[in-house]
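Newbie here. two chains, one complex. Structure please?
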Amino acid sequence: MTTESGVSALPAETPLGDGASLKVRLRRADRRRKLVAFGLVAPLLLFVVVSFAMPIAGMLWRSVEDTEVSGVMPRTIAALKRWDGQGLPADEAFRAAAADLALARAKGTASAAARRLNYDINGFRTIIMNTARKAPEADVADIREVLIGLDKRWGERETWAAIKRASGPLTDFYLLAAVDLQHDATGSIVRSPEDRAIYLDVLGRTFRISLTVTLLCLFLAFPVAYLMSTQPAKIANILMILVLLPFWTSLLVRTAAWVVLLQNEGLVNHLLMWLGVIEAPIRLIYNSIGVHVAMTHVLLPFMILPLYSTMKAIKPHYMRAAVSLGAPPWVAFLRVYLPQCLPGIAAGCLLVFILAIGYYITPALVGGAGDQMLSYFIAFYTTDSVNWGMASALGAVLLATTMILYGVYSRLVGGGAIKMG
Amino acid sequence: MLGGDVLVQFSTVQKSYDGETLVVKNLDLDIHRGEFLTLLGPSGSGKTTTLMMLAGFEVPTYGDIKLHGKAINSLPPHKRNIGMVFQNYALFPHMTVEQNVAFPLEVRKVPKALVAEKVAHALEMVRLAEFGKRRPAQLSGGQQQRVALARALVFDPELVLMDEPLGALDKQLREHMQMEIKHLHERLGITVVYVTHDQSEALTMSDRVAVFHDGVIQQIAPPSVLYEQPKNAFVANFIGENNNLQGEVESIDGDRCTVVLKDGGRILATRVNVYGVEMPTVLSIRPERLFIGDAPEGAVNRLVGTVVETIYLGDHLRVVMEAADQSSLMIKMQARPHSPQPKPGDRIELSFRAEDCFAHAPLKEAK
């Protein structure tokens, strides 16, 4: 009994001296380790937040932000708040518009609002700019007639509805436009008119090209990765260098090289003619053939590397075991080898597909007008027409679809199975 | 079990990988139905190559391998119907235990109901019935090896090959699995060809052991014969512990010969493969056949030496001595706690029988 009680007394005497519980002390001991770990990643974390997370957040914000019109025409918007959207707004709104535009003229800010409204209704720019230039007196009784006299479109309900729609501070205008939708005058969501409904098409094309390129890459990379994984180290290293060599070359240089090779008078056409496959040069560039060829080539290493690293880890004795158990080689391949490759296939496809969706330079250089992908339009809105709202909305659509696809994909393959080698 | 009809026959089989050296040289080997044959040898001796040729993963450079009297040189491995257990188990990581065991049946297009029944039976046989739904990675090494066994046996092959199947297990588990495999073999009446470099494993499990060295079978015999009557110096040294004494043959008399040791002592030995007077020879004596103190009956040979070291091992005592030209002659004696032990520095007389001492031709220097 005495020994028993002695034993049970022992844990209490083991140094819990300062009264702190074991959990507290454990936490305290862990804290230093955690601080060190955090300190090690902090610079990178800061860099990622500043250069990656914040721009993305900013971009997403811009796709719903709508302050250009409210900055220029605050009184008009305040007046339109009381408008029910039926018929024309009250005189008060006309008066406010005249006053706002006169002030905007003086400050030189009218064009910002004009541009924003022009996105909604083609020609709105001229309404605003003309009205602002003439700067009508606001304190007149027949302000309604004065404005309509300046531009008869002030007498249309749709004009005022557009201003109300752009009153901000948030809007779904850009996001809807990015998927070919818009609000009509009554506020319900409808399809955009034919001539403006291009983005779903572009999105579809982007996915189609990316999918084809991904499949082409998989088809071409699988045998190469298999060969590399089965060769002795010396030969595998040479193959690896051959794979990586283009990888180390600038994307622009490689694409430019394809421009040269795929010309009507280029090497590929000459070769095909010399082989007698074709009689006259065929068009290989500035169409979808060029886009597919160049993109597949550029993205191939991203498929080979994860496949190779997965295959390298599959020991040959699995195949031997399968064959010794009576499976013909192709059954052994399908049932034993291929399933073990799945993580690599998944990682490679995901990598190539996600990179391909965002491709810009290659299709821009070797594709035709009908082969441009979504990124081209994002670049166009960013740099050419400076419609950042639209650029951001398209970017947000691209981001969202990519995330959804990733979600579906990792659900199908089993999230844990995806690894990048 | 011996004397069953011949299941596998190797005749003058040669194998070369580089076209210059033979890894397996003129191998003639009959494997009898129902026996447990172990191919034993150091690495690079050709034992694994021999097994791989039998499994069909390597093609003989010359010669025939016959299974059921039919040459199988060009028969692909999946048509040989030979079960195989690999050193690293080679369980398919993406399948459950049940799926692994069902694999050989499914590729043979066995009906589904029968598959389930056979898988259950096979798992029960290796006492893993309740582990069917687990993945191989969730099992211990010993359990994985038992699954590999079940998988290699489930399609009722007549011949099962095992390539160092217990190499990755710790000592205790290995010894346990040795017995388990041995009992399975006895119960199922299958033919097993087992490759190992562990001589105690070979002695424990086998009906016959083929000792490989340098691409040649040095001796093929039941374990006791291998141990008691090694055919040459390599087998004597490879199987069990052994003392070597260098000498020269002085005279030959039937299966006995007299050997003069380097220090001038004369030893009467059993002649094994020495054929002429004045030939150099190596005498092999097991440590437990050397006696200290009272000479047993028939122990005609005497050696005098100095004790270098004694090692107490509980059930027995090891005495290291300097005697003849040998600086570390090993003697294994019963530990007798109540009688005086030899101490380092003691001069002691050893005795041994002529039939425990084998005169072998010296080993040729390795290439």
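Moderator note: The radius of gyration of chain B is 24 Å. The first strand of chain B starts at residue 6 and ends at 15. Thread marked as resolved.
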